[in-house]
């Protein structure tokens, strides 16, 4: 039985292999009831500089380690994580406000992120190129150096590990700043895991800070001259800011941002399957997933039948404190986010939307909500909700469905339901998204796939060999064998 009666022991930030206190702390709250979960070190720009210095000092030895040794180290991390995963589930429930089932899924996924990253150590790291001068020429990948990782609160296990596992695998060192809403599950807990796994001091560092300190701390993580790349997962607004700063310093930035993702239900779809998938995609983790289904686009001929099946499932979802595992819908991460989601609902209703289900909010909770009669004059049509709210819109033709899907600045995921796979694939290829799924919902991920979006949903890809573009640089190296000629005058 998992114990949620007491918070974790917080030993400090993790810098250069040592647990380091900060000058002050901040309160980390359980969003189900706003009770104290833990007191967290409130790091400063000087703490970040110390972490970057430690990472820089550790880089040469880590980068020069034989590739198979780095692979073994990542596999050891995965093994330690698996032994201790119940601790993470406790944190994901109590600190992150997640349903127990969500915590179990995330805990099981994270170890595979490290195992997948370990495989990168055995990948092809370059190519041999032809030369018109008879040279032996290679394009070879090398690690960058220190990578800053800024991770989110909604999936603190998966999205934190994904942000740095590949970077470590190819020989970089890391400074991680987790979200101030999940600084333990998304940061300090990882430091414990990597310390136990024997990762050398300085290779992995964690600096935590409060919301009030995040601007100053984040600027150092991006602008410090010894940081060579930034890995960020979070909101589009913050991602734009980070990418702009990184660009000003000519640094690589892999940023995975928000979404306004649609599921298209065609008139030949399996409606029971689509309704079940829509229920999961819309309300899993209170809709606090970048891939959440925020729009259901349903063809006219099956609209009423689909809605009957969908709403009957959604009505069964219970909302409440995550200490009760029957409450599949827990709190939003904080009251600020809950107020924002309720304001989007209220704006839509004031402009003519119909509440088919839910609509109520209290404390940090918003119950599962389904809105119809939504149009582009309403904020909720354009803005990422990041809450347990989905809008449902009718369409007539396949072309209309594609147009409705693409009517957004975002482009992360899309989903299409049809028994005609050829028809569904034709639509999927027209969606302006980095990811599209046929006969499944929007929330899909695997550690080895190219994960990322287009338009305002981000730049770059995480996962598998595609992570190499974010965390390595290519160098052209040649070996001349006497074939290069020069003009006689020289």
Describe the protein in words:
The protein has 490 residues and is an alpha/beta fold. It has 15 helices and 22 strands. Strands 14-17-18-13-12-19-20 form a seven-stranded mixed β-sheet, with helices on both faces. Helix 12 (379-382) links the parallel strand 17 and strand 18. Helix 2 packs antiparallel against helix 4 (100-120), helix 4 (100-120) runs parallel beside helix 5 and helix 9 crosses helix 10. The longest helix is centred in the N-terminal third of the chain and has 21 residues, at 100-120. The protein is globular and about 80 Å long.
Itemize the secondary structure elements and their pairings.
Elements: E1 13-15, E2 18-20, E3 25-30, E4 35-41, H1 45-64, H2 67-83, H3 85-94, H4 100-120, E5 126-129, E6 136-143, E7 146-150, H5 158-169, E8 173-177, H6 184-196, E9 204-206, H7 214-223, E10 227-233, H8 236-248, E11 252-256, E12 261-265, H9 271-283, E13 293-299, H10 303-314, H11 335-350, E14 354-357, E15 361-362, E16 365-366, E17 369-372, H12 379-382, E18 389-395, H13 398-406, E19 413-417, H14 421-428, E20 435-438, E21 458-459, H15 467-471, E22 472-479
Parallel strand pairs: 7-8, 7-10, 8-9, 10-11, 12-13, 12-19, 13-18, 17-18, 19-20
Antiparallel strand pairs: 1-2, 3-4, 5-6, 6-22, 11-21, 14-17, 15-16
